[in-house]
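This protein record is not my work; I was only asked to verify it. Take the sequence as given and treat only the tokens as open to question. I have pasted the whole thing underneath without changing anything:
***
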Amino acid sequence: MASNKLDASCIELALEGERLCKAGDCKTGVQFFEAAVQVGTDDLKTLSAIYSQLGNAYFYLQEYGKALEYHKHDLTLARTIGDRLGEAKASGNLGNTLKVLSKFDEAIVCCQRHLEISRELGDRVGEGRALYNLGNVYHAKGKHAGRTGHQDPGDFPEDVKACLQKATEFYEENLAIVKTLGDKAAQGRACGNLGNTHYLLGNFSKAIMFHEERLAIAKEFGDKSAERRAYSNLGNAHVFLGEFEIAAEYYRKTLLIARQLGDLAIEAQACYSLGNTFTLLRDYETAIEYHMKHLKIAQRLCDRVGEGRACWSLGNANTALGNHQKAYHFASQHLEISREVGDRTGEVTAQMNLADLRSILGIETNGQRLQKSESDQSLSSPSTPEKDQAIGGARPRRHSMELLELVQMTPEKYAASSCSSNSSNVSVTSNSKTKKNKQKSKDKETRKGSITSSASSGSINSSSSVKTDQVKLHIPQRKLSPEMIDDDGFFDVLSRFQSNRMDDQRCSFNKFGGKRQPKGAEAALSPQKEELLDKIASFQSSRINEQRASLPKLPGLRTDNPTMLEQLVTNDSQVPDDNFFDMLMRCQGSRIDDQRSNPPPAPKAPTVPDEDFFNLIQRLQSGRIEEQRSMLPEKKKKTSQNNSSKQ
């Protein structure tokens, strides 16, 4: 009776958690699910459903570690009770979670397992989902690998292209299945992903075809978010085809829908894309207008990366219009922000732009002249305490020190100088061994001299004669130095110390004082041997027990029901196939990678679109740098004078 009440309360809590998650309040829903797990149940299917819902809720909350944990519990329980459909769903959920964690190989194994079981059961819906998930994993893997190289679409390495091509194959299979099932929403998702994948492969015409189909389905369902994404993707594809006017029109529609949805980050992305497109159209005034809107939203959302991109774009546009002072201001801000966020590419770009602007504005020449005059003045003027304090406590290097040459003293020169001056009687030779021997003899004479002097001082201070055998001299022990020991002596001392250490580590078996044991002693030692063998056997048995398989430890599982325990033991005795073990081994092997330290992740930029054509604009702008340069005033005057003289 009590068990039924507990089951009822567990189910009620789980149902309330499911209702809250469907309403969008996943945070509160998770609390009800966790409470249901705390209450526990002996209904294995109910517990499996709770695990699945908890994993999905944590996935939505972006707590992927917790999501992975509960999806693993769901997979273990489904496998234990022989629920093939539950095993397929749990494998698919595991694959999606591992994909988000960038563990693409493990994700592929789990999604492949989902596909195999769905085909085995004849589940067409599950098969379509598995194909879609596999396409997502390969797309994410290729995109992740291609992003590290900063290549443009279509210029990726062969391994990246192979992943993306594999993704298109799975998406096309998925599209064929959902068309037969009449699932329009799934068709729209497949078309959108096919368009994105062909865009990365450089197949821009195919990408436009699939995105137009995606746009039509989004309009049919009234899905404004999907419609906005389709417009943005169409604009990106037309940019790489060189059709900038068409791209600008699609970006304007993107901006309009973003404002209708009230999404500031998406609005900033649309402004950024429009600014870049008008830069490519050489309509720099309109480009500045959109980039300023992007900059204001980025500042409002505290997006420093977005601010840096806006400043870079504003600097380029102002340079093209000849507003070099404004361009210098934005380039300086771009450099500062790039250093702050660790954007090495942006930092180098900003430094190059600043160098060009300094040469145009004449800032670099004036700065060099000012620095040179200050350095000359500091060298010529005498040093004073007030001047040293103004510099920061560091005295400037005197000019005379620059003319000082280093004198190299060789042993031969040193010996010659010592012979010429009668202050030393020691001859220096280049032979290092003779020098060591003479140093040893000098140390011995020093010790002898100290003994003699101590004895003589004792005889002077005493009033009567003292016998030599009554004199006790205390000579302090001196530590041996490498100069006082030659090579052979040093190794002798070292070997003596090492041999003592080796003897300390030896264990003696001579328990009976070196006497030969009688034959009966072996019989006396046999009980000890038997005791030792018994201890070894007990240790071995404990190791065997550690290797025994036990029932899975699942949170919320009540084991007070004998029928449920019998079902667990019966189903757990079934040996899983090799493919399942291979999948689990790969997932377990990824724990080693979890302990590795990864490089710091790239800073997020919510106001900058993912599919950014930053490199395209940079490449096109690099060919126009010479066109944007302005001549120095002196050169302009000379040119005008030459033209007037020719006339």
